[in-house]
Write a structure and sequence with these properties.
single chain; about 325 residues; alpha+beta; 2 domains; three-stranded antiparallel beta sheet; 10 helices; about 35% helix
Length: about 325
Amino acid sequence: MTAALMEVPKTVFERNWTDMNAAEQRAFFSKNGFLVIPDVFSPEQVITMLDDIEQLDLENKKIDMCEAFCLAPSFADMVDSPKITSVVTNLIGSKIACIKGCYVAKKSKEENLMPHRTALHVDYGILEREGDYRASSALWVNVICYLTGMSLRHAPLAIIPGSHNYYHLAPESDMESLKDEAVTVMIKAGDAVVFLHNTIHAGGSNVSGRTQHILFCAYRPTWARPVGPVAKWPKEFVESSPPSRKRLIVDLSTGSLQSEIPPFIVKHTPTPLLKKAAEFLLTLSKAVKSDFLSSWGNRFWTTYRRKDQESRVID
């Protein structure tokens, strides 16, 4: 017996995304758990990306989707794209990290099938390999950029607006009882959609006769430390990245609350004492060969230098 196909939501969500200011974007995202970012990539940039896919044969390569993302030179611009990072920092805070990038080729199924979708789900805590805790952070967002425009047959996106507030639902639970609340979001080539890790959504199945090409980047606030170690970006990718990109893709297993001196210590500790603490920790780290003590010594030294310079400006 053939299983029934999951129906694409009949209601198409329509909104003018181009005229929203930062406050309106933040208010919409807070209420709905998603936001479309228009014109992230120009038509010329999209063509370049599609050319890279063809030349590298990424659509047919049997490799990890994160590895595929790092192979195409044109994909890297997504990580630190100003159009993406300006929106993400507006939504989740000024200090962010990009925890992964992926390329997905969604090939077409039989064209005689009716448009349908995958199961409704959230992204929190799923899809990562054992021992990789990227999806475990307390807060993160997925940004999905489409290189081919959507239609009902070309894998449209289903989203349940406001579902990030459904705290009674556990990840990986059956969410199909909520299907009547879902809407279809149509996104054109070069646009992106950003949604919270716990916003319920589903990708559409592709029955258009042509491949859908998708890029993913996931971002978290630097304070949202994962519960365990995470996979690193490839060394070659990091070393070839400009500073604006590199700062987003290093030290992903830590959080800013763990990598900075607590503010109350900075406020109430005299500057000379910060210097002495830094010197002591750095000296001790060399004696016992401790990277942990060395890292804290460097943090105290950086804090001392900053506070010392601030006091000189005031004087």
